[in-house]
Amino acid sequence: MDIGCLFAPTTHTPDHIAEAERLGYGYAYVYDSPSLFANAWMTLGRAADRTARIRLGVAVVTPKLRHLVDNASGAVTLAALAPGRVDVVVGAGFTSAALLGRRGSRWAEVEEYILALRALMAGEEIDWEGARIALTFPGHSGLAPVTDVPVLAAAHGPKGFAVASRVADGVVTNPSHSSDPIPFEGRCVVTSYGTVLGEGEELSSPRVVDAAGPGAALALHLGEYGPLAGTDEVRGYQAWLASVPEERRHIETHREHLIGVTPEERPFITPKVIESATATGAPQQIRERLEHLEQSGATTVAYQPAGPDISRELRAFAAAAGL
Q1: If you average pLDDT over residues 289-307, what whole number do you get?
Q2: Which pairing describes strands 2-7 and 27-30: parallel, antiparallel, or unpaired?
Q3: What region, left, alpha or beta, does residue 48 occupy, with left being phi > 0 and alpha being psi -120 to 50 degrees?
Q4: What are the tens digits of pLDDT across the range 66-125?
């Protein structure tokens, strides 16, 4: 099983990806949510100049956020900068769509988008939204069609896994979204949140809350659809959210999403929540979880470091994973 990493991109992420390569991580993906994070394609372009081996990818692009041509061009450009080590993940959308006040795409749209994205990258002409389109890069642009960029699907339920089985080169899934995270045969990337505990460190430690809190807060954001359904913490968080004017709730729900913990979330990031919603634990516990995921069918675990010291999180997880 490969060990990769996943970033909520900031202006420092290119350097963190270079550090991840030195530590032995095989993959580095970044989220694409422009209302929250640094630009995904720009971040990976800068990372390409700092690395030589690690695979680079966006997880995820969505039909409702960027036009198909924009993402196809981004992927082809990144493939020219980092040949043979680019992945693209397509999904229905969660935070990126919510922050535009929209719902995620239908899975039929995701399936169509995957097929069209692959065709455009390969240099084909396609019909899209009533027009014939293609990537027609000039010969001196340094860009050329690519057919070696895997396109994966971000899938967390039966419809997503069905689409992935039909048209994608694998799946990226999140155990927080479902009690059955890997009902899929083939390349399966499982995301992991949390922090590696130091000797004698407690789940209530401020450092642990800062580092594991963003992943734990994701479960609060999922509410009754996530692993904390029915808990006092979810009820308390939802009660606070109900006090926010309705037209702003989507903004406040996702403020600091996966990158920090807001003052309003912090009272609900309890040791029980961290234990239930993240893969936080001592090094031996991390190793045991990785072994369990491998036995369950994961081919890659993508660890998302968070908190104020990303380098520490990368080093600690790499050591626990035996990189």
Answers
A1: 92
A2: parallel
A3: alpha
A4: 899 999 999 999 999 999 999 999 998 766 555 566 666 799 999 999 999 999 999 999
- Residue 104 pLDDT: 66
**Do 6 and 29 form a contact (C-beta atoms < 8 A)?**
yes
Residue 178's pLDDT is what? 45
Which tens digit of pLDDT belongs to each residue from 24-39? 999 999 999 988 999 9
Alpha-carbon dihedral sign for residues 306, 312, 313, 314: positive
Q: Break the chain into its structural domains and give their ranges.
A: 2-194+281-321, 206-275
CB count within 10 Å of CB 137 equals: 16
Instruction: Round to whole Å and give the CA distance between 129 and 107.
Output: 17
Any idea what the Cα angle at residue 260 is, between residues 257 and 265, rounded to 5°?
A: 80
Class at the top of the CATH hierarchy for domain 2-194+281-321: alpha beta
Write out the DSSP string of 161-212: HHHHHHH-S-EEE-GGG-S------S-EEEEEE--BPPTT--TT-HHHHHHH
Place of tokens 């800062």: 210
pLDDT score of 48 more than 80:
yes
The owner of tokens 């009902």 is 183
Whether the CB-CB separation of 23 and 320 falls below 8 Å is answered with no
CA angle 3, 5, 9 (to 5 degrees): 170
